[in-house]
Amino acid sequence: FGYYLFFPKRYAVFAGYNPKGIIEPYVITYLEGLSEVSDGIVYITDSPLPKEELKKLSHLPILYHYHNRHNEYDWGSYKRGYHWLKIKGYLKKADELIFANDSTYAPITSFKPMFEEMSKHKDIDFWGNSQNTFFNTHLQSYFLVFRKNIINSPKFERFLHSVTKFPDHSLYILKYEITLTPYLESLGYKWKSYIPYEKLSHLPMPDKNSYPLTLIKDYNNQFLKKRTFTDK
Protein backbone atom coordinates (compact mmCIF):
# COMPACT_ATOMS: atom_id res chain seq x y z
CA PHE A 1 0.00 0.00 0.00
CA GLY A 2 2.99 2.34 -0.29
CA TYR A 3 1.48 3.67 -3.53
CA TYR A 4 -1.16 5.54 -1.57
CA LEU A 5 1.39 7.61 0.31
CA PHE A 6 1.86 9.77 -2.78
CA PHE A 7 -1.81 10.32 -3.56
CA PRO A 8 -4.83 11.91 -1.86
CA LYS A 9 -6.75 9.92 0.69
CA ARG A 10 -9.59 8.57 -1.41
CA TYR A 11 -12.55 6.26 -0.78
CA ALA A 12 -15.06 4.75 -3.19
CA VAL A 13 -18.71 3.80 -2.94
CA PHE A 14 -19.59 1.19 -5.54
CA ALA A 15 -23.27 0.56 -6.33
CA GLY A 16 -24.27 -2.81 -7.73
CA TYR A 17 -27.29 -4.85 -8.70
CA ASN A 18 -27.66 -8.36 -10.03
CA PRO A 19 -31.02 -10.16 -10.24
CA LYS A 20 -29.24 -13.52 -10.21
CA GLY A 21 -27.50 -12.76 -6.92
CA ILE A 22 -23.99 -13.14 -8.31
CA ILE A 23 -20.91 -10.94 -8.62
CA GLU A 24 -20.04 -10.91 -12.30
CA PRO A 25 -16.36 -11.11 -13.39
CA TYR A 26 -16.50 -7.59 -14.85
CA VAL A 27 -17.50 -6.25 -11.43
CA ILE A 28 -14.41 -7.83 -9.88
CA THR A 29 -12.30 -6.21 -12.62
CA TYR A 30 -13.94 -2.85 -11.87
CA LEU A 31 -13.35 -3.18 -8.12
CA GLU A 32 -9.72 -4.15 -8.76
CA GLY A 33 -9.35 -1.00 -10.86
CA LEU A 34 -10.84 1.13 -8.10
CA SER A 35 -8.51 -0.45 -5.56
CA GLU A 36 -5.55 0.96 -7.51
CA VAL A 37 -6.76 4.53 -6.98
CA SER A 38 -8.49 4.34 -3.59
CA ASP A 39 -7.75 3.48 0.00
CA GLY A 40 -10.89 1.44 0.46
CA ILE A 41 -14.22 0.55 -1.12
CA VAL A 42 -17.74 0.38 0.25
CA TYR A 43 -19.71 -2.09 -1.89
CA ILE A 44 -23.48 -1.67 -1.73
CA THR A 45 -25.78 -3.91 -3.77
CA ASP A 46 -29.51 -3.40 -4.29
CA SER A 47 -29.89 -7.17 -4.34
CA PRO A 48 -29.02 -10.10 -2.03
CA LEU A 49 -25.70 -11.89 -2.39
CA PRO A 50 -25.02 -15.34 -0.92
CA LYS A 51 -21.94 -15.92 1.22
CA GLU A 52 -20.28 -17.96 -1.51
CA GLU A 53 -20.36 -14.96 -3.82
CA LEU A 54 -18.88 -12.66 -1.19
CA LYS A 55 -15.75 -14.82 -1.13
CA LYS A 56 -14.92 -13.32 -4.53
CA LEU A 57 -14.18 -10.04 -2.72
CA SER A 58 -11.61 -11.46 -0.31
CA HIS A 59 -8.57 -10.05 -2.15
CA LEU A 60 -10.02 -6.54 -2.38
CA PRO A 61 -9.84 -3.60 0.08
CA ILE A 62 -13.56 -3.76 0.87
CA LEU A 63 -14.25 -1.72 4.01
CA TYR A 64 -17.91 -2.67 4.19
CA HIS A 65 -20.49 -4.44 2.07
CA TYR A 66 -24.27 -4.28 2.18
CA HIS A 67 -26.24 -6.73 0.05
CA ASN A 68 -29.98 -6.39 0.52
CA ARG A 69 -32.84 -5.05 -1.58
CA HIS A 70 -33.42 -1.35 -0.83
CA ASN A 71 -35.25 -0.43 -4.06
CA GLU A 72 -33.52 2.93 -4.45
CA TYR A 73 -31.24 1.95 -7.34
CA ASP A 74 -27.69 3.31 -7.54
CA TRP A 75 -28.52 6.55 -5.72
CA GLY A 76 -29.82 4.60 -2.74
CA SER A 77 -26.54 2.71 -2.68
CA TYR A 78 -24.54 5.95 -2.90
CA LYS A 79 -26.57 7.31 0.01
CA ARG A 80 -25.96 4.24 2.16
CA GLY A 81 -22.25 4.09 1.34
CA TYR A 82 -21.78 7.77 2.12
CA HIS A 83 -23.63 7.38 5.43
CA TRP A 84 -21.47 4.42 6.48
CA LEU A 85 -18.24 6.26 5.65
CA LYS A 86 -19.44 9.28 7.58
CA ILE A 87 -20.48 7.51 10.77
CA LYS A 88 -17.24 5.51 10.76
CA GLY A 89 -15.16 8.69 10.49
CA TYR A 90 -13.62 8.03 7.08
CA LEU A 91 -14.99 11.18 5.47
CA LYS A 92 -13.18 13.42 7.97
CA LYS A 93 -9.84 12.25 6.61
CA ALA A 94 -10.90 11.86 2.95
CA ASP A 95 -9.59 14.16 0.25
CA GLU A 96 -11.81 12.63 -2.42
CA LEU A 97 -14.90 10.43 -2.57
CA ILE A 98 -15.80 8.32 -5.62
CA PHE A 99 -19.33 7.26 -6.55
CA ALA A 100 -19.33 4.49 -9.17
CA ASN A 101 -21.83 1.89 -10.36
CA ASP A 102 -21.88 -1.34 -12.29
CA SER A 103 -23.56 0.02 -15.44
CA THR A 104 -20.20 0.07 -17.23
CA TYR A 105 -17.30 -2.22 -18.01
CA ALA A 106 -14.23 -0.54 -16.55
CA PRO A 107 -11.40 0.19 -16.49
CA ILE A 108 -10.41 -0.62 -20.04
CA THR A 109 -6.75 -0.24 -19.05
CA SER A 110 -6.33 1.71 -15.80
CA PHE A 111 -7.98 4.54 -13.87
CA LYS A 112 -4.59 5.97 -12.86
CA PRO A 113 -4.00 8.27 -15.88
CA MET A 114 -7.50 9.73 -15.50
CA PHE A 115 -6.94 10.59 -11.84
CA GLU A 116 -3.47 11.95 -12.59
CA GLU A 117 -4.93 14.23 -15.28
CA MET A 118 -7.79 15.47 -13.11
CA SER A 119 -5.44 16.13 -10.18
CA LYS A 120 -3.97 18.96 -12.27
CA HIS A 121 -7.26 20.84 -12.01
CA LYS A 122 -6.83 22.28 -8.54
CA ASP A 123 -9.64 24.81 -8.97
CA ILE A 124 -12.50 22.31 -9.25
CA ASP A 125 -14.55 20.80 -6.44
CA PHE A 126 -16.06 17.79 -8.20
CA TRP A 127 -15.72 15.99 -11.50
CA GLY A 128 -16.96 13.05 -13.48
CA ASN A 129 -15.93 11.02 -16.47
CA SER A 130 -18.50 12.53 -18.83
CA GLN A 131 -21.28 15.07 -19.06
CA ASN A 132 -24.58 15.24 -20.89
CA THR A 133 -26.75 18.15 -22.04
CA PHE A 134 -30.03 16.22 -22.16
CA PHE A 135 -32.51 18.23 -20.01
CA ASN A 136 -29.63 20.37 -18.72
CA THR A 137 -25.84 20.22 -18.57
CA HIS A 138 -24.80 17.72 -15.92
CA LEU A 139 -22.17 15.16 -15.00
CA GLN A 140 -23.32 11.60 -15.55
CA SER A 141 -23.70 9.69 -12.33
CA TYR A 142 -22.11 6.36 -13.27
CA PHE A 143 -18.78 7.85 -12.14
CA LEU A 144 -18.41 10.94 -9.95
CA VAL A 145 -15.60 12.26 -7.76
CA PHE A 146 -16.12 14.82 -4.98
CA ARG A 147 -13.39 16.70 -3.15
CA LYS A 148 -13.07 17.54 0.52
CA ASN A 149 -15.16 20.72 0.74
CA ILE A 150 -18.17 18.97 -0.83
CA ILE A 151 -17.69 15.68 1.03
CA ASN A 152 -18.15 17.45 4.35
CA SER A 153 -20.85 19.88 3.21
CA PRO A 154 -24.15 19.57 5.14
CA LYS A 155 -26.05 20.54 1.98
CA PHE A 156 -24.43 17.71 0.03
CA GLU A 157 -25.30 15.32 2.84
CA ARG A 158 -28.91 16.54 2.84
CA PHE A 159 -29.11 16.03 -0.92
CA LEU A 160 -28.05 12.39 -0.53
CA HIS A 161 -30.36 11.81 2.40
CA SER A 162 -33.26 13.09 0.29
CA VAL A 163 -32.95 10.00 -1.93
CA THR A 164 -36.12 7.96 -1.63
CA LYS A 165 -38.00 5.19 -3.43
CA PHE A 166 -39.44 5.75 -6.88
CA PRO A 167 -41.16 3.16 -9.07
CA ASP A 168 -38.96 3.70 -12.12
CA HIS A 169 -35.22 4.21 -12.69
CA SER A 170 -35.86 7.15 -15.02
CA LEU A 171 -37.21 9.13 -12.09
CA TYR A 172 -33.84 8.83 -10.34
CA ILE A 173 -32.21 10.39 -13.38
CA LEU A 174 -34.69 13.27 -13.32
CA LYS A 175 -34.62 13.76 -9.55
CA TYR A 176 -30.93 13.24 -8.77
CA GLU A 177 -28.56 12.80 -11.73
CA ILE A 178 -29.58 15.86 -13.73
CA THR A 179 -30.09 18.07 -10.66
CA LEU A 180 -26.92 17.42 -8.66
CA THR A 181 -24.50 19.30 -10.94
CA PRO A 182 -26.55 22.54 -11.19
CA TYR A 183 -27.37 22.33 -7.47
CA LEU A 184 -23.71 22.15 -6.45
CA GLU A 185 -22.88 24.81 -9.03
CA SER A 186 -25.50 27.10 -7.46
CA LEU A 187 -23.64 26.71 -4.16
CA GLY A 188 -20.46 28.01 -5.78
CA TYR A 189 -18.72 24.71 -6.47
CA LYS A 190 -16.79 24.27 -9.72
CA TRP A 191 -16.72 21.15 -11.83
CA LYS A 192 -15.29 19.54 -14.94
CA SER A 193 -15.61 16.32 -16.93
CA TYR A 194 -12.65 14.19 -17.91
CA ILE A 195 -14.05 13.62 -21.40
CA PRO A 196 -13.98 17.08 -23.05
CA TYR A 197 -17.60 17.55 -24.06
CA GLU A 198 -16.83 20.81 -25.87
CA LYS A 199 -14.67 18.91 -28.36
CA LEU A 200 -17.46 16.48 -29.27
CA SER A 201 -19.96 18.86 -30.88
CA HIS A 202 -19.54 17.01 -34.19
CA LEU A 203 -21.21 13.97 -32.59
CA PRO A 204 -24.95 14.74 -32.73
CA MET A 205 -26.37 12.74 -29.80
CA PRO A 206 -26.17 14.58 -26.45
CA ASP A 207 -24.97 11.47 -24.60
CA LYS A 208 -21.47 11.04 -25.98
CA ASN A 209 -21.27 7.54 -24.51
CA SER A 210 -23.25 6.66 -27.63
CA TYR A 211 -19.89 6.86 -29.45
CA PRO A 212 -17.71 4.49 -27.41
CA LEU A 213 -15.04 3.81 -30.02
CA THR A 214 -14.35 7.52 -30.50
CA LEU A 215 -14.11 8.13 -26.76
CA ILE A 216 -11.85 5.14 -26.18
CA LYS A 217 -9.58 5.79 -29.16
CA ASP A 218 -9.25 9.58 -28.94
CA TYR A 219 -9.86 10.46 -25.28
CA ASN A 220 -8.58 7.54 -23.19
CA ASN A 221 -12.10 6.74 -22.02
CA GLN A 222 -11.97 3.96 -19.44
CA PHE A 223 -15.68 3.12 -19.50
CA LEU A 224 -17.87 1.11 -21.84
CA LYS A 225 -21.55 1.32 -20.99
CA LYS A 226 -23.26 -2.07 -20.78
CA ARG A 227 -26.17 -0.63 -22.74
CA THR A 228 -23.84 -0.37 -25.76
CA PHE A 229 -24.82 -3.97 -26.46
CA THR A 230 -28.54 -3.62 -25.76
CA ASP A 231 -29.57 -0.13 -27.00
CA LYS A 232 -29.37 1.45 -30.42
Fold and architecture overview:
There is one protein chain. Residues about 1-5 have low confidence and may be disordered. With about 230 residues, the chain is an alpha/beta fold. The longest helix is centred in the C-terminal third of the chain and has 18 residues, at about 170-185. It has eight helices and eleven strands. The strands form three sheets. The protein has a seven-stranded mixed β-sheet, with helices on both faces. Strands 5-11 form a two-stranded antiparallel sheet. The chain has helices spanning about 25-35, 50-55, 75-85, 110-120, 150, 155-160, 170-185, 210-220; strands spanning about 10-15, 40-45, 60-65, 95-100, 105, 125-130, 130, 140, 145, 190-195, 225.
What is the topology?
Layout: E1 10-16, H1 25-35, E2 41-45, H2 51-54, E3 62-67, H3 73-87, E4 96-101, E5 104-105, H4 112-118, E6 126-128, E7 131-132, E8 138-139, E9 143-147, H5 148-151, H6 154-161, H7 169-186, E10 191-193, H8 212-219, E11 224-225
Parallel strand pairs: 1-2, 1-4, 2-3, 6-10
Antiparallel strand pairs: 4-9, 5-11, 6-9, 7-8
Summarize the structure.
It contains eight helices and eleven strands.
Which key features would you list for this structure?
seven-stranded mixed sheet; 32% helix; globular; 8 helices; alpha/beta; two-stranded antiparallel ribbon
The percent range for strand residues is 15-25%
Total beta strand runs = 11
Radius of gyration: 17 Å
Overall geometric form: globular
Please write the string of helix (H) and strand (E) elements. EHEHEHEEHEEEEHHHEHE
What is the spatial order of strands in the main beta sheet? Answer: 3-2-1-4-9-6-10
Based on secondary structure, the structural category is: alpha/beta
